[in-house]
Amino acid sequence: xxxxxxxxxxxxxxxxxxxxxxxxxxxxxxxxxxxxxxxxxxxxxxxxxxxxxxxxxxxxxxxxxxxxxxxxxxxxxxxxxxxxxxxxxxxxxxxxxxxxxxxxxxxxxxxxxxxxxxxxxxxxxxxxxxxxxxxxxxxxxxxxxxxxxxxxxxxxxxxxxxxxxxxxxxxxxxxxxxxxxxxxxxxxxxxxxxxxxxxxxxxxxxxxxxxxxxxxxxxxxxxxxxxxxxxxxxxxxxxxxxxxxxxxxxxxxxxxxxxxxxxxxxxxxxxxxxxxxxxxxxxxxxxxxxxxxxxxxxxxxxxxxxxxxxxxxxxxxxxxxxxxxxxxxxxxxxxxxxxxxxxxxxxxxxxxxxxxxxxxxxxxxxxxxxxxxxxxxxxxxxxxxxxxxxxxxxxxxxxxxxxxxxxxxxxxxxxxxxxxxxxxxxxxxxxxxxxxxxxxxxxxxxxxxxxxxxxxxxxxxxxxxxxxxxxxxxxxxxxxxxxxxxxxxxxxxxxxxxxxxxxxxxxxxxxxxxxxxxxxxxxxxxxxxxxxxxxxxxxxxxxxxxxxxxxxxxxxxxxxxxxxxxxxxxxxxxxxxxxxxxxxxxxxxxxxxxxxxxxxxxxxxxxx
Length: 608
Known about the structure:
The chain is α+β, with helices and mostly antiparallel strands. 57% of the residues lie in helices and 14% in strands.
């Protein structure tokens, strides 16, 4: 019978079948009553025709697809689907829809038992305080800052201290030079004892002494050393013990005239160290911006996941309520089996959507726990997190020109690229300095003292009677200087490369900024359009329900409208969440998110 009525709407199909059967009965009865000339009257059993039509209608309205049976007592929703309220009747359905609608409208403030409510500001604070990636990144400026001390250490005083003891036994020749016992004969020996004690600080000379040297920022190296020597000599038993004390004070100065001369060259490594520290601080700022964006994204994704779960649960509740109504109407013969089966299929599909939404919601909670580095050894760390901040749409106006000027000044990536250009130029200064020949002027002043005892030796040292001086010019240059030339060319290429990288970074940030502003403006219009769509779909759903109750529309039509309403709600919330994230993304591009929130300035200062 259904083949005679291809209409996809069961209620209309049922009416068409009845009309068609009635039309056939009417034609048959009329033919039976009419008699043409010469024809025999046709006898028709009207009761039999009516019985056949009734049986055909019964078959078309009670049988579904081949081999299917309608179970009117099975649960509306399977037990493996976790719902806050189990759907059994119209009352439970109304309670579930009201509860989910309060979540969708962000009006629910009561927390389920054992859960933890959390605000966005809490997520941001705890992320800044405990996020492991951020804590690790904060060590970089401290580590890099130590390179500044290393660079300055070249100009620190350097000293050395050396203590030696030497004993020498040498054979002698001749009587006067010393003989054996009795003063004669071969085999006479000379015993010489030399003891030298000296201390030093930074003198590279091999001579014993006490000294200190220091390199100045101009490249000049100065040194001061004191040398002390004691010598004991005895030759045989006829010559008495001979003791000598020698002390000398030395002042040395070496000044570079070409390579290594001037503060600009000698302080280049210090400036590079400061620049590297600055780059490390800017990189920490960029990591902080990225982490803050991740915290905002994770929170608002959790908000959306919770609302999307509520929307799917509400859609499941409406589908289950439709199934309940269809079963009742089917039981009393008001609907055919197809209506019940379509409603059951709609429930099964929405059960799957709810399960997927629940998994997404739990994953978003774990993302928050990961960001705030929650203590997994603490009791209750797995308690469900419930976002408390509603996605309320608040439009803003962005002046693209002013915002772009701020971005070019404060964006950390652009600032790092500019500092890298400075470092490349400092490298060229060092390379050009190494290309110069080395010409050093050296001056050495020495004052000596000699005595039979240490007091006499010291007094002569400061008498000024035995001064010595030494002047020298030292010149050195590689004949081919291939390495030096290659270093200069490499430094020039690095400057060009860093400048291109700076221009590329500025260009990329410029277009990122334009896209971010355009996205904000687009999402503002999307939010407004989504709100109008929700209102329209809600009115359409109400009218569709009335049409279904009156038999004008089918269960399939009502399920489609319910789906459209759920999608419209999810689209509206998604647009609001994306709008929030677009604003945060713009602040990240500008590099002003830290200053805008005003929460992570203290951690940044601590990192420095």
